[in-house]
From TrEMBL:
This is 26 kDa periplasmic immunogenic protein. It comes from the Bacteria. The keyword Chloroplast does not apply. It holds the Pfam family SIMPL. Keywords: Signal. One of its GO terms (biological process) is DNA damage response. Residues 1-18 form the signal peptide. The keyword 4Fe-4S does not apply. PANTHER family: PERIPLASMIC IMMUNOGENIC PROTEIN, SLR1258 PROTEIN.
Amino acid sequence: MRALALALALFAANPALADTLSTITVSGEAKVVAAPDMATLSLGATGTGQDALTAMNATSAALEAVIARLQSSGIEDRDIQTSSLQLNRKARWDREKDQEIFQGFEASNMLTIRVRDLSSLSAVLGAVLSDGANNLSGLTWGIQDTQTLEDEARRRAVKDAMTKAALYAEAAGVELGDVMSIRDTADPIVRPSLGRAAPMMAEMASDVPVAAGEIEASANVTMVFEIDD
């Protein structure tokens, strides 16, 4: 790597020398898939009341039961986080009377939860819904060790670029030389997601069926090779 840097510095300092070089520029890409080993979901409870305290107390009681269920199911405290807490006044406008009609208060408390044991996910979902969670805004699949997956995609992208460069050199009847530069354009890991609306909750079975699918990591590189004389 140091030798490559010195060589590039030499070319930069001597434009005439750089101009005499013949090069091959290629791009390489790769995709790697793996089964997810973690799920992140956002769920919570919404309660109503004629006053703010009643609405908040109803929501808090449901969330306390949900958190207790999560903890008893093996979810660690570090994987349970309050993501949203809201209290809203509800009202509608009566056109005939030309006045606002007060309808009470609505409180909402949402949690972000990481489930690291996917074998328990369906049972956990069913249990927390039974315990009072009535708002599930989404479920996202992920991998705990994303670095390994991304690194493998990068290795394969470089291999793809080198294979192309060798093919082009052979087809052109020239000798492929050293690598002059590598430029990495990394794409984020794609995480399939599933969202469900609250009205569907009451119709769900005690264990909620879910399908994890696959997680995909992709990588793209551009490589420049010297052509040997």
